[in-house]
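[Meeting: bench + compute handoff]

Bench side (C.D.) handed over the final construct sequence. Compute side (W.E.) agreed to return the predicted structure before the next meeting so the bench team could plan truncations. Sequence as handed over:
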Amino acid sequence: MRIISALLLLLLAAPHAAPAAPKPPPVIRVAIARGSQALKLNTTSRVYVQEVGSGQKYLLLENSKYEVKPAGAGIAVAGQELSSPIKLLAAEGGEQIRLGRNLYRGDIVIKATAGKLDIIEHLSIEDYLCGVLPSEMSPDWPLEALKAQAVASRTYAMRFINPTRDYDITNGVEMQVYNGTTKISPRIIEAVNATAGKVLKYRGKLITAFFHAACGGHTASSKAAWGEAVLKPLYGVKDPFCSPSRHSRWEFFLPAADLLKFIQAQGSTALKVKGLKIDKKDRSGRAISFRVATEGGSKVVKANDMRKRFGNSEFRSTLVTAIRPVKGGFELSGRGWGHGVGMCQEGAKYMALKGRPYKRILAHYYPGAAITTHE
């Protein structure tokens, strides 16, 4: 072995033929960082760096810290410039690669683009789910709710697998949250393993299995939420189950001055807000649009745009039940938390507490969808 600036060049012998193994689960590529200036890498055991183009491998020392950063058209690791892209390969046995505060068990592909790094993890869909579940649902919730979440998240992720792109899915709230393997627990593993390979299909095709925190009494259709063509499983259903949740109701104060700035950014020339009311609703009772009264008439704005502008954590849903004028603005009351499409997580929790199995939970929130093993 030849030492090159703290990297050990590894020469591999030709692999021996192995007996046929069962078909492994699909691999998903998760964008865990995009446009990064540099990467802090901590190794807890042996990790290999491979130049994807040449196939040449180098060995990183265990229990060591490395900085990975762009270097010209390539990538510098421990002072050694390598051709982009490179791959970090986890050794056999689990969570060896630490990036920042999170641990990852998959292979990490790092690509230099315009002086910045894109970092993509390649791992099996089942390992990926073990990282998604504790970020999207409390591991302390009933096991049947966790199983339902596993099937929904697996279906959602597999819907986006596309080999023609650089990655399949991101790791943030814009898709589903994934923070590596740091928070995995025995209950999470049990929920994933008990539903291994199970997905939701409608007429033989994977559905986009959306989910959200709390629906407030009725889930929304995908058409009402985003204008998408709606399938039966995402049409929206009545849901009495999440009513005990502390997230089922909310209040939010909207300052008139902030609302004025918002409609001005939308093209209004108004100088004063005089009133606010719901303009249109969908069949679930959610606001599609609001009408803002001003000194010169009124301005209609999309409900989703307003919620995005004023914060999804405060303006928790578009299921607004009352708007009251108060000093300095408006007091909004509403139900639910999130976009409202697909599975209500709080409802799933309370269904499980009442003894409903995960298949019945999924049948309620995605009516008409079949639970099947994905081939």
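W.E. noted at the follow-up: The radius of gyration is 24 Å. C.D. will use this when planning the next construct.
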